[in-house]
Amino acid sequence: MKKDIAYLHTKKQKRQPITVLTCYDYPTACLQDEAGIDIVFVGDSVGTNVLGYKNETEVTMEDMRHHLKAVRRGVTNAYLLVDMPYAADRDATRAITNANLFLSDGADGVKLEGGMEKVPIVSALTEQGIDTCAHIGHNPQIHGTKASTHGRTFAKAKQLIESAKALADAGATLIVLEKITEEVSQIITDTLAIPTIGIGAGRFCDGQVLVINDILGIGPPLKHAKRYQDYSHLTFEAICRYKEEVANGTFPIDANTSHIPPDKLTRVQKWLKSTH
Ligand code: KIV
Predict the structure, then answer these.
(1) From CA 58, how far away is CA 85, in angstroms rounded?
(2) 113 annotated active-site
């Protein structure tokens, strides 16, 4: 069954946690979809996690569309969410044009970063019938890659709660809460009718999102994430073993090889001789 916004909203009402992972390529999309992940999310974290960029502001629409199309081919059931890259949502006209490009590539909804200042953009996208996910707290496009926790003071907590309400009132269908204190995230979750998806935002959001590289053990360990695999170590070990076996002649062996039938080989050898 293809998951849509209504399905995700029902999960919130039933208090069933929503599962979200970032995804940047076709094989990983197939695995996430098969595992039953609710939202497969092509984040602009593709820039720092896959493309070797220094930060999110380097990511372009072309980058996002390239990875979105690859992920799209692997997704059958999950809701497919894609990030608006830096400045792609600078004004309403640009946001609508770019969101429509993503929808034509197969996305179900778009996510954009920012608080109150993004309310008019969310309204404009909603008026066009485009599913829009808001994203408050730590915003890598605005605050850079080094994340600090938001919502530790009264003023900041109030600002976050007010932004979340305004974005939901403007029509946001989901909201990501990144690096926000658990208490403030819980207040936002209890206040809003739309699902909250937390990353480093504590235990009480309606769903959780992590960067796929962080659960696989690619890159450094992070406090908000959990490693379920030691990809870097296992991959490095595989590369070293391959290199060693090619170098010492133990790969390939006969089982990795295809042969020409002996009578055909004899014919080739005779033909070769006749050409000299
Ligand atoms: O791009 C990203 O990875 C994000 C996070 C919230 C998961 O936006």
Answers:
(1) 9
(2) no
